[in-house]
Amino acid sequence: MCFISSSIYAQSTYYQGATVIDGTDNEPIKNATIIVTDGKISCVGSAKTCQISGQKNVINVEGQYITPGLVDAHVHFNQTGWIDGRPDGIAAPEVYPYEKTSMANLANPERWLKSYLCSGITSVFDVGGPFWTTQLHQKFAHSNDVPNIKAVGPLVTWVTVDAMQLNDEVYTFLPMGSIEEAVASVDKVRQSGSDTVKVWFLTPPEDKRDELDARMYAIGKGVKDSGMKLIVHATTLREAKVAIKAGAKMLVHSVDDKPLDQEFLNLLVTNKVYYVPTLLVHGGWTRGYSSVALNLPLPIDDPNGCVDQETLDNITTPERLSSVKPEWLTGVWAFDRLQSSGMQLSQMNENLLKVHNAGGLIATGTDAGNPLTLHGPSIYAEMEAMQNAGLAAKDIIIYSTKNGAGAMGGSSKFGTIEVGKTADFLVLSEDPLKDIRAFRSVKQIVRGGKLHQQSDLAYRNID
Ligand SMILES: [Zn+2]
Predict the structure, then answer these.
(1) Distance from the CA of 97 to the center of ligand 1, in angstroms?
(2) For residue range 376-391, what is the model confidence (pLDDT) as tens digits?
(3) Dihedral sign of CA atoms 401, 405, 411, 417 in order
(4) Measured by CB atoms within 10 angstroms of the end CB, which terminus of the chain is less buried, N or C?
(5) Superfamily of domain 6-68+416-457
(6) Assigned CATH for 70-283+331-407
(7) What element of type H or E holds 115?
(8) Quick one: pLDDT band at residue 355, thresholds 50, 70, 90?
């Protein structure tokens, strides 16, 4: 039931006739009406529940499907989708001066934001980057031409990556060389205005594990004491458990080294920790390396023309790296890595099903910005990989909308099509409950109540 005073009819838009899948466990509503008023959903239901009476602004979406806008819960605005954004992978300053790449990202964040909205992604969570990323939310707070944004800022890590520490102002990592240093890094993140601390907890050498655990716990306490939230990159079962015990509310990747055990599943479910599978990012790196090793431009999966020309030019000219490629990067190395990527994916698939079956909170994330994990369209393949792993489309829709909002701390504001939520939703021409590939058929994107035709957001026309 919904009540609407006549005074707001004038500003309302009515989407009429679609099947609405609202991002919750509710059954789809056929031939539904959604009323959008002042950027929010003011009614959703049958034509009888949400009556249209005399107003003009009716959008006919008969025969189409409406879902909440997609949420990519793991991206990096300071990475490009190619190797130029990750000099720690292949260092090639002669071809890709990192400072130039990074400054271009800072100067033009709209480049990626457009790719996201174009692909049907209405909210993005940057889980690690320079301090400037934490200002984007504020900068674009009143724009309905970009997705809703959250960014955590620099990663706290025991690893040093000189190639990515650009200068004193633009850097991506904060140290945790001792307990005191770890706690000071937490404070630095807090001062930047971020409400979330991300720890890049790469698997430590065996003899360092205990002391790094202690620093992880100290970070967890510091985060809790300052009222912030902890999220962690930990892909080994042992470190992932330590992360949750230290207070992590989100694991930004799958555990991929071994099968999840009952202790992990209990920790994850009891502590309501979001588990973001990122099934394909490793394979993207492998394809990127292979492309360079073999001098072979690989096909780009961009069905709706959402990738900008400069990115396409970079990706399709791997030969630019041929004179500077490292010696280890051979065809044989690439084929070995393709095989190991396949093994790793099957472990991640198995673990994803375990988390799902245990009732864990799963949120879709791509790790976009990494080589060949492209800002925007990479979400389609990620959702399809979740489907291939054995998840049902109806669950993947929830994981890619409602749960993404939850992972961003935005459940009360967006992520579902419910009265009072921000009007972020998609019009698809195919049924996503039959096959998650239907998100490739996105035709219209409503962001904060503003209607965009997908083709208007594209960088290129796709016939
Ligand atoms: Zn990442």
Answers:
(1) 21
(2) 999 999 999 999 999 9
(3) negative
(4) C
(5) Urease, subunit C, domain 1 (2.30.40.10)
(6) 3.20.20.140
(7) helix 110-118
(8) very high
